[in-house]
Design brief:
By secondary structure, this protein is mainly β. Helices cover about 5% and strands about 45% of the residues. It has 3 helices and 28 strands. Strand 7 and strand 8 form a beta hairpin. The chain is globular. The N terminus and C terminus are likely disordered.
């Protein structure tokens, strides 16, 4: 049964026809859908974030104004405003409708991440250390260009080395701010006091990306230690580990199936000496519960840096070092695919042990 299940998934990957989005001149750094899934926002090292229509990949516009790499972006709940974090030591607030820059928030060092708080009245940024300034978490009111609160991130106590933040996310009800670091740590901070409430060493190496499910009850981390891990968002308890043979740059949780999508590849500087087949620049599909890989989607010519799955579960986007975004739409056989484990028998029904629904011969 499991073999048939795997075969069907792999077969869907063969028949999928992605849309290639050619809008960036340099490698992709971030890909995100808005809350409704009808808009796709992308960022790259070419300084110009873009927005695309989610259903057909049509480019709707760009946001011009940054002078450095865009490391992160975040769209608010109702898709009216966009925040971007850039290496030019600034974060910017944009109008999604007009593309106009409404406000610039200046930092001391390169801004690595940005995240809206619930209610879209505040947002948080993380910035790298610069000269004598430590890395910082900065909390802003949307109407004020100066931070209303800053949390200093000093050097590691044991190694005396600077630890750089890599991602920032607000927890439900804005109770805590979750930050990941390049030493594999995951920390919770109180946005009112700045106190570190909890720390978990989730990985052995840098955490590249973090992604939550829609309800923010689970999150998955992607790390350079060749693994992605699933955690409980309430108590930071580690649930599952998805092992690969290469660095993982991004991982996302499907909203409609118990699947995890993982993207990565070897370091960017060794890409030019590696062929596409050997570099393994593909999206890998894992079962969320069983930790088993059951399918791949190929196509990119460089390591996948960013992944995003549409909230409706019908499509996903991947962005890579080759500068392209590939918009993939799942076909009917994948969308209709059932879980291989039989469900528990309902009262009054006879339990079928280990059996799957019959599969027609021509579909194989």
């Amino acid at each position: 049964n499991y073999y048939i299940y795997s075969y069907l998934v792999l077969n869907t990957h063969i028949t999928m026809r992605p849309i290639l989005l050619k809008g960036h001149e340099r490698s992709i750094t971030c890909v995100k859908y808005n809350y409704d899934g009808d808009l796709l926002f992308t960022a790259s090292k070419d300084h110009v974030p873009s927005v695309w229509r989610g259903e057909d990949g049509e480019r709707l516009g760009t946001f011009n104004g940054h002078k450095g790499t865009i490391w992160d972006l975040d769209c608010n709940r109702f898709s009216t405003h966009l925040l971007t974090a850039s290496a030019d030591a600034s974060a910017k607030l944009w109008s999604c409708q007009t593309g106009e820059c409404l406000r610039t928030f200046t930092h001391r060092g390169p801004v690595r991440g940005v995240a809206w708080a619930d209610g879209s009245k505040q947002f948080a940024t993380i910035s790298d250390p610069f000269v004598e300034h430590n890395a910082k978490i900065s909390i802003y009111d949307v109407d004020n260009e100066h931070p209303c609160f800053e949390i200093d991130l000093p050097k590691d106590h044991t190694t005396s080395k600077r630890v750089n933040p890599t991602n920032v996310v607000w927890m439900p009800l804005n109770e805590y701010i979750l930050v990941t670091f390049d030493n594999g740590a995951i920390r919770l901070y109180d946005p009112q006091t700045g106190n570190e409430e909890e720390e978990v060493m989730g990985h052995e190496k840098k955490i590249n990306r973090i992604s939550f499910n829609r309800e923010k009850t689970l999150f998955v981390t992607a790390s350079s230690d060749n693994t992605a891990k699933l955690f409980d968002a309430v108590d930071l308890k580690h649930f599952k580990t998805y092992k690969t043979d290469r660095p993982v740059n991004d991982a996302v949780i499907s909203e409609t199936k118990d699947h995890i999508l993982i993207g990565g590849g070897q370091d960017a500087m060794s890409v030019t000496t590696t062929s596409g087949k050997v570099g393994k620049f593909d999206t890998r599909f894992f079962h969320l519960v069983y930790e088993e890989e059951f399918g791949t989607v190929k196509g990119h010519f460089g390591p996948i840096n960013a992944l995003a799955i549409n909230p409706n579960g019908r499509s996903y986007a991947s962005g890579a070092e080759d500068g392209y975004i590939r918009l993939h739409f799942f076909d009917k056989s994948y969308l209709d695919m059932k879980d291989p484990v039989p469900e528990e028998a309902i009262d009054g029904e006879e339990e079928e042990k280990g059996e799957m629904p019959p599969i027609e011969e021509e579909k194989q």
